[in-house]
Structures are given as C-alpha cells and as structure tokens.
Amino acid sequence: MNQKYITLLLCAILSAGAAWAGNPDRQGEAGAGQLLINPWARSAGLHSMNTASVSGIDAMYLNVAGLSRINKTQINLGHTVYLQGADMGINALSFGQRVGKGGAFGVSLVSFNLGDFEYTTENSPEGSGGMFSPSLFNMGLSYSNKFSNKVSVGVTAKFVSESINNVGARAFALDAGVQYVTGEKDNFKFGISLRNVGSKMRFTGEGLSKTRPNPNDAAVGYPITYYERSAPYELPSQLNIGMSYDWVFGTTTRLSLIGNFTSNAFSRDQAGGGIEFTLSQNFALRVGYKTEFNASKIEETLDNGLSAGMSVSLPVKKNSDTRVSLDYAYRNTNIFNGIHNVGVRIDL
Prior knowledge:
With 348 residues, the protein is mainly β. It has helices spanning 3-20, 41-44, 59-62, and strands at residues 73-82, 88-99, 103-113, 117-118, 131-132, 135-147, 151-163, 168-182, 188-198, 209-212, 224-227, 238-249, 253-264, 270-279, 283-292, 305-315, 323-331, 339-347. The longest helix is centred in the first third of the chain and has 18 residues, at 3-20. The radius of gyration is 23 Å and the shape is elongated.
C-alpha cells in the first residue's frame, strides 16, 4: 500500500480523536452506552486493551483493522452476563469471511436483554399492571484489508437502536482502525482505532404525546394531542491507541505484553494493559487491568480493575483447519458480582 495513504489515514484518525478527546466536564452528556460494552470473551479477558493485536471477528468491536487477519471464515456466538445479579444479558453473533487477496468482510449483531419492567404512568405511579421490555440493538457491517502483512486498515458502519414499545431512538455510526506489524517475527504491533463517531440520537414516538383539553373547547368539541420534543444526545466516541510485544518460544508458545490508552469524548480517559500466554492454537490465558484517570469511586466506570480469561481450541479432526473454540472472560466490577463472557468460535 502507498505509505502516503497510510500516513493520511493515521493523521485523520488522530485528528478526529483529538476533536472528541477526553473531557470529564462533558461526562454524562452521551447516550447509547451499550456501544462501550464488549460482548466478545477473547478481548474482554484483556479488558479491551488489545487494540494493537486483536484479530478476527473480535476486531469488529475494538479495532476493525484486525478483521483481515483471519484465515478464511469465522463464526462467533457470544453471551454476556452483565453485572451478575442484575438480570441483564447480552447476546451476540458475528460472521467474518476472507475475500480477495487481503480483504475480509464481516457482519455483527448485538442484542441486549434488560428484563421486564412494570409500566407506570402519572396516574398509576406504583404500576398499572402492564409490563414492558426495553430493546437495545446494534448491527455492524465491516470491511478490512491487509497489505503485505505489515499494515491493515478497516472501517465499520453501524446501526444503533434503542426503543420501548412506543418510543425509540436510532443512529448511524462509523468505526475506523489501523494496525501495523513489524519485527523479525512480526512480534511488535501498533494499533489505532476511532469508534462510535456518528449522528445524534433523539427519542421520538407516540409515547411522547399527551392529550390535553382544547383551549377553544366551546367552538371545537375535541381535545388536542401535543407532542413533546426530546433533547438529542451524542454517541460515546472514543479513540484507542495500543501497542503489544510478543516473546516467541519455539514454534508454538507465545507470551504477549499489551498496553493501551483510551481517550473518551464524554468521560475520563483510561489506560491499561495485559498479558496473554498462548500454547500453539490450542490454549490461551489472559489477564488485564484498566484504570481511569482522576476518577473517584463514585464517578469511575463500573468495570475498572482486573479482568481475566481463557480459550480452549481444538480441531474437529486431526490435521484439520476447521476448529472449535470455547472462550471465557471475567471482569471485576465495584457493584454486583462482575461481568461474565462466554463464547463459541468456529474457524472454517
């Protein structure tokens, strides 16, 4: 790839990130916080700190540039128990396919189950007997391309939806990313990703209407329906900059040291890192840590602190390229009993 275009893309990502860069004074002004919840166990085990080294369909969440580093076809099913004890879950499905010489195409679907809530009104503040369930849904279409194994770039177009039975908000967003690999054994990696840059969201629908008496009721004998206009809100944009270094022992064992800095447009910046140990393609252990700058216990993100995970991967038969992997991750939280991710990955 022409180095000029790589440099221009890097500058564009960094410039855009600087425009949204961390500002605690704007904390709480963004919505759609589900876009910052990682549904994939492999990267969640490293606290989403592996911007530089993430690969395959996990990359569609964190740094889409890594999508092109798949061999052929990947399918991933994931389930997240979010804040165990709060009865909230996340289901995710993704598909990645190698296309052409160095490209890859991917689709991801993420759905949040927040449980059932009792329907209340102004006249029935303690409940009217009805129930409703909020719907949070994200869909992403991704494309990534790898150039001579050293540089990969990618972009994701996302549709974001939040709704209940009579009110909803929708938006479109873009993610972009770059990964650079160098070293004698491709053991040094550098990555940048810009996430959740898109249109504002605003709730609309019949749920924002109110029927009131007609002020000119003597002349017109019917009430008037008024519609309230809700305030728009931004998406939680963020810039990730990460590096990793691999120590390779023999031909099957690898130990990776990972570091990452996250600049959030509407909250405090974060930094962290992790260690990943892999034995061949069959087994992996991960430990990560994340901290938030200048945040008190009340203000900090729920899942700051430690994370851990593991993967077990086996071929369906001897010497086969088709593999089935089981992934698990745990993230500590300062309320409830942590976040648990489980996943099944199929490599064809």
